[in-house]
Design goal:
By secondary structure, the protein is an alpha/beta fold. The chain folds into two domains: 196 residues, Medium-chain alcohol dehydrogenases, catalytic domain (Quinone Oxidoreductase, Chain A, domain 1); 128 residues, NAD(P)-binding Rossmann-like Domain (Rossmann fold, 3-Layer(aba) Sandwich). It contains 13 helices and 16 strands. The strands form three sheets. Strands 3, 5, 6, 7, 8, 15 and 16 form a seven-stranded mixed β-sheet that branches. Helix 11 links the parallel strand 13 and strand 14. The two termini are 15 Å apart.
Amino acid sequence: MKAARYYSNDDVRVEKVPVPEIGPEEILVEVKACGVCGSDVMEWYMKPRAPLFFGHEPAGVVCQVGKGVENLSVGDRVFVHHHVPCFVCHYCRRESYTMCRTFKETRLYPGGFAEYIRVPAPNVRTDVLKLPQEVSFEEGSLIEPMACCLRGIKRANLQLGDTVLIMGAGFTGLVHLQLVKILGAGLVIVSDFLDFKLEKAKELGADVVINPGREDTLEKIKEVNEARAPDIVVVTPGSIEALKEGIRLAGKGATLYQYGPTSPEATLSIVPHQFFFSEITFVASYSSSPLETRTILEYIYQKRIDTDELITHHFGLEQIGRAVKLTAEAKRSLKVLVKMGE
């Protein structure tokens, strides 16, 4: 079979590898679609581990089931989560599911950008979800990244009527926009330097959009928000400069929510005085759990999330290099999908 192996953003190769063999309680899935994640193109994260098979947003069809698998059958259309928690360890009992040892050890083989993947037993038991016929494979591949956004919003403790600023109108920014509206946010403001993305934000329900290259973000927010700064600031770019700006924009009693990761060498200087006397809370959120994937699947099935506007490009597996470069450029694309067999 064919599988994509990452060497760098400029060197992604489609290689021939054996179809994985499955064991008891495992399944083999024929991948139909897999999204390119922003983390797939973060070279500080990827290159130290290269070469590696990658892709962690797959949806497909079950084509083999191992002995003992009772909840799935050959032919089932499924979403597959690449990591799952144990639900019983110290971290899981504190609802820090992504800190769980099992979570970090479970993974798909070889990776989502392959014609077939082996799904280990813990994942089969916990977070392989059957897709209704009304949910396409393309939509199924959006479940994992959307679930990451949902978990972050939960950790940010969104309150009914909150004013939310979302910094960055890429794919994850636009997902956050739709989710905070569903969950009861009041005024939702989106900022980005690219007008193409701001237009998408308006189409998807943003109350106010701001291009920081043309106007002062804080002044504009106060103009439309009763002279107050935001209650929640969602920082989607993995950038120290973005985090600094997020701190500047956070209002009294606000939550600064970091969604985008930064490199291990990056450091952020803060003024504790500001955090203390303004009671600003800093929250970060990494990945998602089976709790969020189920909710997202329901939202997609119920058409509460507009998925059509989020997917801008499709590529075949042989074109994976182009898909990676387009995602890394992050200018005229939102979600880029790789579809097997095209």
